[in-house]
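Box 3.1 A note on notation
Throughout this textbook, protein chains are presented in two layers. The first layer is the amino acid sequence; the second is a token string describing backbone geometry. Keep the layers aligned when reading.
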Amino acid sequence: MPTAVPFTIAIAESRLSWIQDRVRAFPWDSVPDAGGWGAGMAKDTLRRIVDHWANGYDWRAEEAALNGLPQFRAETDQGRLHFVHLRSQAGATRLPILLLHGWPGSFAEFRDVAPRLAHPERFGGTAADAFDLVIPSLPGFAFSDKLRAPIGARTIAGMMHHLMTRTLGYEHYIVQGGDWGSAIGSWIAHDYPQACIGLHLNMAILSHGGARAETEAEKAYRAEQARSRDSEGAYAQLQRTKPQTLGFALEDSPVGAAAWMLEKFVAWSDLPHVDGTPDLEAVHSIDRLLTNVMLYVATGSMTTSTWIYLGNTHDNAVLLEHPVTTPTAVAAFPDPVFSPPPRSLAEKSYNIVRWTPMPRGGHFAAMEQPQAFAADLRTFAETIAAPPKAGTHPSP
């Protein structure tokens, strides 16, 4: 049985110096400005963020804050898997929750959600209502080992199930996922329904082959998603087909990597606009965004983080083989690019027992609206009870 080994983040000073040298030496004058956001990342916004990166951002302070979370690594057949493991106090009876990020996110997306679930006594609740939390870095991301070859969501689902059951010893658990975390979580519920007894999604991304759009609303949604893929999906097509080529550029340019990822935080977040310009800082902390970037750049994981797109095409993981039977909740945040499907369409692929239209919040819901996110997850999780052990009967 794999064991979990305590882990502390400690980026080498030489790596930090290299990043700072590259950031400060970026040739801004040689990059033309297409103006605004119509062609991608706005130059003026990126330059302002990078100036803070070079002159104000404190990685060591962020590193210390992240190290306030109990972290571990465990061996798998794909190398070591990094994860945060927050345990509730003795006597708490809630099921554990596995929280899964996507791209270009990280385990740090859940920094403001985790204490609300693991330490409710800090927010007006009681410690007995705490959940154990497991928050991994996906394989090939951050402090998980670099992959030897691309793998997709279904293979990763098996790794996460084994982390929860073989390494950590949980018999039953709940999964929460968005972006790739949604796909991985869906495959966990699909393939391991005896263990994954609750699924909470803020992106109902997968469907099975028989889930056809039939109503006008369902057909309109599918048409909208096709238009969105045309206007916003170039990154995914490139990462699905030529991630290695992209990797050569992004590994050598911290500023390029930041632009590649931060543009998504602008396009996919639910941001207010001022004079037609998205106001990133109204929703996101620049320091938190830079920390997310650093979890890719400082660890040298830009390339392998994109391999999941290619790996998924080889992993038999695009369409579910049958509908998910695990009780499923959807927190339907108004994601401006990956908008939630009509409930009727999602119900063809998932056993939907809870559907919550959210008034605000986009693709990075745990970062954008942590209080609403945590509250909806808690409300759902409190309805899920572990089945009685064989030979026992539930209490009257």
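Residues 95 and 385 are 7 Å apart (CA to CA). The chain has one domain: 4-381.
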